Amino acid sequence: AKSEPLKIMISGAPASGKGTQCELIKDKYGLVHIAAGDLLRAEVAAGTENGKQAKYYMEKGMLVPDEIVVNMVKERLLQPDAEENGWLLDGYPRSLSQAAALENLGIHPELFILLDVDEDILVERVVGRRLDPVTGKIYHLKYSPPENEEIAARLTQRFDDTEEKVKLRLQTHHQNVEAVLGVYENITVKINGNAPKGQVFSEIDAALSEVLDKKSKESSSS
Ligand code: AP5
């Protein structure tokens, strides 16, 4: 029998490289990338009531309340494309209550990837990050510069990407990370995220291949 599609979570401090690795994972494995931060920024950009409230917390580097986030992510996870192709959940859950909400829905990942990056590197990554509003691609002025002048001219910066704000985001991360790790301890793989992005991806790729191998063995013996 064909095995069920992959269900993966990726976590790590602000600017640890989650979005960058998700682009690479999505290209190779065809999973649907669901990023809590991207869903929230889309609400902010659309000017919805949820977006207005979310922006207040995002500007302070705090977690957006569950009343807004939990349903938003749940609805996206239950869309047919995610159910058919598998999903890659980025930046969610970030608290015990969010993890519990998923458990209550019977939503369990097969692998929890934790990107481990030193704090001085995180600040440099945040300050140099730029986004392409046309393709959604993530750049860094030093580590992943744009391919040409046309792209360079249209790059934008996130409203919470300042040194001051990343320090607040880091504090929030430290307050919550242990609780979430406790829930997924048995399926966690910790990856050194300080290395160049290709090297980080090789480690993630190896961990994902292992999960896929195990799943195909299980489904062929059942
Ligand atoms: P969110 O958008 O999730 O932000 P974050 O966790 O702070 O993470 P980032 O998106 O900043 O970084 P990343 O790890 O994706 O790094 P990237 O690949 O871009 O959340 C924003 C806000 O939304 C939160 O503060 C909160 O308010 C709210 N929110 C989100 N989720 C929530 C939830 N579950 N509950 C409640 N509220 C929530 O890389 C960063 C830079 O480094 C880039 O320029 C990249 O090119 C570069 N780079 C990446 N990898 C490497 C490498 N290996 N070497 C060199 N450079 C690299």
Explain briefly what this protein structure is:
The protein has ten helices and seven strands. The protein is of the alpha/beta class and 222 residues long.
Q: How would you describe the shape?
A: globular
- The tally of beta strands, per DSSP, is 7
Structural class: alpha/beta
Helical coverage, percent range: 55-70%
Strand content: 5-15%
Number of domains: 1
CATH architecture: 3-Layer(aba) Sandwich
CATH homolog superfamily: P-loop containing nucleotide triphosphate hydrolases
CATH topology: Rossmann fold
Rg of Cα set: 17 Å
Distance between the termini: 8 Å
Instruction: Quickly count the helices.
Output: 10
The largest beta-sheet arranges its strands as: 2-3-1-4-7
Q: What is the H-and-E element order?
A: EHEHHHHEHEHEEHHEH
pLDDT averaged over residues? 95
Poorly predicted residue ranges? none
Ligand set: BIS(adenosine)-5'-pentaphosphate
Structure description:
This protein is an alpha/beta fold and 222 residues long. It has helices at 18-29, 36-46, 49-59, 66-77, 80-85, 96-104, 119-128, 149-154, 163-184, 197-221, and strands at 7-12, 32-35, 87-90, 111-116, 129-131, 138-140, 188-192. The longest helix has 25 residues, at 197-221. BIS(adenosine)-5'-pentaphosphate is lined by residues 12, 14-20, 36-37, 40, 57-58, 61-64, 69, 91-92, 94, 98, 125, 128-129, 138-140, 143-144, 169, 196-197, 200.
